[in-house]
Amino acid sequence: xxxxxxxxxxxxxxxxxxxxxxxxxxxxxxxxxxxxxxxxxxxxxxxxxxxxxxxxxxxxxxxxxxxxxxxxxxxxxxxxxxxxxxxxxxxxxxxxxxxxxxxxxxxxxxxxxxxxxxxxxxxxxxxxxxxxxxxxxxxxxxxxxxxxxxxxxxxxxxxxxxxxxxxxxxxxxxxxxxxxxxxxxxxxxxxxxxxxxxxxxxxxxxxxxxxxxxxxxxxxxxxxxxxxxxxxxxxxxxxxxxxxxxxxxxxxxxxxxxxxxxxxxxxxxxxxxxxxxxxxxxxxxxxxxxxxxxxxxxxxxxxxxxxxxxxxxxxxxxxxxxxxxxxxxxxxxxxxxxxxxxxxxxxxxxxxxxxxxxxxxxxxxxxxxxxxxxxxxxxxxxxxxxxxxxxxxxxxxxxxxxxxxxxxxxxxxxxxxxxxxxxxx
Length: 425
Known about the structure:
Layout: H1 5-8, H2 21-24, H3 31-36, E1 42-45, H4 52-63, E2 67-71, H5 77-91, E3 100-104, H6 111-122, E4 127-132, H7 136-139, H8 142-145, E5 149-152, H9 158-171, E6 179-182, H10 186-192, H11 196-210, E7 214-217, H12 219-228, H13 239-252, H14 256-268, H15 273-288, H16 294-309, H17 314-326, H18 333-348, H19 363-367, H20 406-419
Parallel strand pairs: 1-4, 1-5, 2-3, 3-4, 6-7
Helix pairs in contact: 5-6, 9-11, 10-11, 11-12, 13-14, 13-15, 14-17, 15-16, 15-17, 16-17
């Protein structure tokens, strides 16, 4: 039997589905819709191996709808139109349950391919379910995105991964016949990276490599076997996220040599230039920030340039940007500031805006004190006057702490001179 383990034990019902309880658990945002069969067009966004295709199939089964599928890798506008025509004809048999059109890797569709879906989605000929590993805000055209609900799938946690292994050992017709002692599972779970398909592929590789009925799995055995069977980079496969992770960590770690090596691995694998450039754009803000604000400008220009130029010349621009980012001073101070601020908002809720900071467009608002005590900074020496800008409950709270680099040392001095002891700079 050539069918891989992940396919053999793929769940067929909602009750069998593992993980994503926020979507399909008892109180999940999709559970009620699936049970009622009232399914909107939607996009499932999440890392590889998190059950996007499985969930789409289950939605179709549970709602008893015809199911059509296309892959963005090998389907053109002609294929899309043919499937839509078929779906329209089969949809005539149903009153409210129009067919489901599932498109895997919808982010790889061109604008014209996505345009060809619009009428079918808008007129209800099909219910579109798209699966993507990329942020749909970047990769799906606004007209199509506005007609779809976006649901985020998360990587499997340890408990989910362990359930998958148990299911494989108990239910798979081949593996259940073997006596497997899962003595250690840490390496197996770690190498999966939260990708259920990857976990099952590694597990099956281990079982097949032993060629015996009694198998004991340890961390050492996992590492030894997997290292000997490392697959080549594939932009649609398992190493996609491992390599980009190594690339970004090399930039963060100020190693231009490692950065260009991992960049070369992606280029040779035919990775999308926009995917690489977008990750560098994020790194320029997250890992460099105000230690060198020019990094964000260069990364943004790189994104624009490679989008216009494409391979092979784009590799030169990508390399220049990667080396620049790797050799730049580093700071995650702005990133940490917004993380802390968001956490504070979640903990404290909607605190009132102080009266002196409120806008006062009407006489009534002015009469009740809106904007009354506000001091216009430009009326004061050095365009600064000390006043409270935070809600009273958060007075003196510091979110931004300048990083340990030359540029942000200057920012710390600037803030200390103005705010004195207020924010403890």
